[in-house]
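Example record for the data management plan.
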Amino acid sequence: MHRIGYLLPDRFQVMALATQAVFEFANLAARERVYGVENYSLAGGEVASSVGTRVPTRALTSRTAVDTWLVAGTLAPLRMAADAPLVQALGRAAPRARRVAGLCTGAFLLADAGLLDHRRATTHWNWAEAMQQRHPAIQVEPDRIFITDGPFWTSAGMTAELDLALGLVEKDLGADATRAVARGLVMPQRRSGGQSQHSELLQMAPRSDRIQQVLEYARAHLAAPLPVEQLAEVAHLSPRQFSRVFAAETGQSPAKAVERLRLEAARLMVERSRHPLEVVARETGFRDARHLREVFLRGFGVPPQVVRRAARGTD
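Corresponding structural encoding:
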């Protein structure tokens, strides 16, 4: 039996417990108890979740033996990561396990324990920049659903924890078992794309109406070249002033923002239509299907064909 240990810090985000259903359904699919799940905390006893529900846990000791640790996050990850005894306990426990996973902001505990140095990792998009600043030795990739780097797994926000848990099952039991689990939980076996599936316009959230107007104009004219001079004219600014104001309000260059809007539009076309990729590329402002593929790989980690197959529920 594969032993799964959940490390629950005080006020852990309750969504972490939902991932236990993945291992429950894996046992059902296998018709035997492949996974055993236990909840742990530093001192043991009841631990309060983010919604106040109290969960009984076992104490984490030097004799605790699990095959996989799943570390829950909290809504205040910097405060959680400042809990030195908890960070040290995880650092001691990790080498005794086969793998360790940080669920959402739980990745901060792995990071502060030094487990992610010189590795790739992700976390909730709202905390990715803070993780990168706090741990420059980590290659933080904020637009990934989950990342595996050696024995360490990290996931994006909340529902992505389910994707990570399903990935663990696929690693252990294979695609057929994973397909059965996903079907039982009514979730995609392999979700395409990244955290940027939330609206790019909402994420950029410029402060002024003039920059918001530029973004809306760009999204309505993605098939056009959209040079900075054209966008500056919409904002009634010189190109130099426009670039400076745009970067100050959105945190990125106009060219990068336009590419993100194009990528979002292309993803929606790939998922929801049957247009050939050459048509998708042309309609969303990419040079050709090859350019579209390059940007998909850079933005989502997978080519557009994989995104389309995943959206249709096919392998």
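Summary line stored alongside the record: The mean pLDDT is 90.
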